[in-house]
Every structure is written in C-alpha cells, then in structure tokens.
Design a protein that fits this description.
By secondary structure, this protein is an alpha+beta fold. 55% of the residues lie in helices and 12% in strands. The chain has one domain (11-103): Arc Repressor Mutant, subunit A (Orthogonal Bundle).
Length: 112
C-alpha cells in the first residue's frame, strides 16, 4: 500500500496549522524536530488509543509535516523540515519556539 505524501508545492498553510493545533500532534513534531532519527509510531509514548495514534500520524502526513516509510509491519516517521522550511520559511521554527515558551511559562507558574 502506497502512502500519499503531498509534494512541497502542494503543502497548504491551513492544513499545516490545523495539524499543529492539536497538542499530541505538536508533541510528535517537536520530538522529531529535537531528534530527527526516523522512528516508529509507538516510540512517541503518547497516552492515546492505537486508532487515535494512527489518526494523528495520518493528519500529520497528509498535511505534509511528516513522511512515513513502511518497514515490515511498522511505519517510520520523519519530519519534513526541509520541505516545510522551503514552502513556509521560518514557520516551523516560530511554532516550535512558541511551544517551548508556553511550556516554560507553564512550568514557571506551576512552581509558583
């Protein structure tokens, strides 16, 4: 079965932003940005059902944020940083920085 991956010119800002609006999907992208090593879906330690996990990865792939390569019965996931940076310069870095700032602010307020 061949998986659909949009070409860089087909990436749509609305689809990318929608995909990143979910905290679990943003967490996946942040993890891949921090360590670009391709990894299986189960390696992200998200506390969701398998069907929900599959949905999140499909949304990310169809938006063009990740690529998936089949390896046996698993899929290896990689961030399409070069394609995203080419199509939307600075967008991914800005979103990742904002997410890191939000995490730092939440941690700071939790310490009180």
């Amino acid at each position: 079965m061949s998986l659909h991956h949009p070409r860089p010119a087909q990436l749509e800002l609305e689809a990318v932003l929608h995909a990143l609006s979910d905290p679990q999907r943003l967490r996946i992208v942040r993890s891949l940005a921090e360590d670009p090593t391709p990894r299986r879906c189960g390696a992200f330690d998200l506390q969701v059902t398998k069907s929900t996990l599959t949905h999140h990865f499909r949304v990310l792939r169809e938006a063009g944020l990740i690529s998936q390569q089949e390896e046996g019965t698993s899929r290896l996931n990689s961030l399409r940083r070069d394609d995203l940076d080419e199509r939307f310069p600075g967008l991914l870095d800005a979103i990742l920085a904002a997410a890191a700032d939000a995490d730092a602010a939440a941690l700071s307020s939790a310490r009180g």
